[in-house]
Amino acid sequence: MALKATIFKLDLQVDNIDLHYYQLHPLTIARHPSENSARMLYRIIAFALNAHPELQFTKGISSIDEPDLWRHSASGEIEQWIELGQPDEKRLRRACGKAKQVVVYSYQQRNGEIWWQQLSTRTKESHHFTAYQLIISNDAPIEQIISRQIQLNCTIQDGAIWLTDGTTTLEVATQPFE
Q1: Do 154 and 161 touch, CB atoms closer than 8 A?
Q2: How far is CA 96 from the centre of its chain?
Q3: Cβ atoms within 10 A of the Cβ of 91, count?
Q4: Residues 58, 36: contact at Cβ < 8 Å?
Q5: pLDDT of residue 126
Q6: Which are the contacts of 118, defined by CB distance < 8 A and separation ≥ 6?
Q7: What is the pLDDT of residues 100-155, one digit of tens each?
Q8: Using CA atoms in the order 102, 49, 144, 59, what is the torsion angle rounded to 10 degrees?
Q9: Boundaries of every domain in the chain
Q10: Tens of pLDDT along 59-95?
Q11: Strands lying side by side in the sheet with 160-164
Q12: Are 96 and 102 a contacting pair, CB within 8 Å?
């Protein structure tokens, strides 16, 4: 018998000072049995960085045809395609053909640099593809923040992210790959 996804309820307050965006997002997140708390937290961070009323979590890890997050226009076109990790070049080219904007967040620092170096120049220079590295700056345990009912505040300013549940605070840096 296959394991089922675990459902999490999240109230995410996004205060993006850089973009003057301040909004509460009540979200439901399905965590695949093979996904750990850290990867789920990185999905939440990616949501906060791209927060928009139409942004949605997808089937993610359990679907090869969908990214981790996406946003559609009113006419059904994919406005934004957001991936986590280090997708292969073929997947990125396909995403760039489907979406107006493709964003990748790598969260494995050592492997991220190798992945970026291996991508072709043509992919890196695509006008609607950007990639960032997410780096948690402090040693706060991620498991302390993740629970079935989560209330998080996310403040974004000058490329830094502070994520807190009121008790534990994580500081995350974003670095663009160049």
Answers
A1: yes
A2: 17
A3: 16
A4: no
A5: 80
A6: none
A7: 999 999 998 778 888 998 888 877 778 789 999 999 877 667 778 888 899 999 99
A8: -40
A9: 6-176
A10: 766 667 899 999 999 999 999 999 999 999 999 999 9
A11: 21-31, 6-16, 149-157, 160-164, 169-176, 129-136, 99-106, 78-84, 69-72, 55-57
A12: yes
In whole angstroms, what is the distance from residue 51 CA to residue 163 CA?
14
Please check whether the domain covering 6-176 is classified as CATH 3.10.640.10.
yes
Q: Is the pTM of this model over 0.90?
A: yes
Rg (CA), the chain: 16
Q: Is the dihedral of CA 15, 25, 106, 33 positive or negative?
A: positive
Contact 95, 67 (CB under 8 A): yes
> E strand or H helix at 85, and its extent?
none
- Contact indicator for 103, 89 with CB cutoff of 8 Å: no
For range 11-26, the mean pLDDT: 97
Task: Give the N- to C-terminal CA distance of the chain in Å, as an integer.
Answer: 45
Please calculate the CA angle 53-82-48 and round it to the nearest 5 degrees: 45
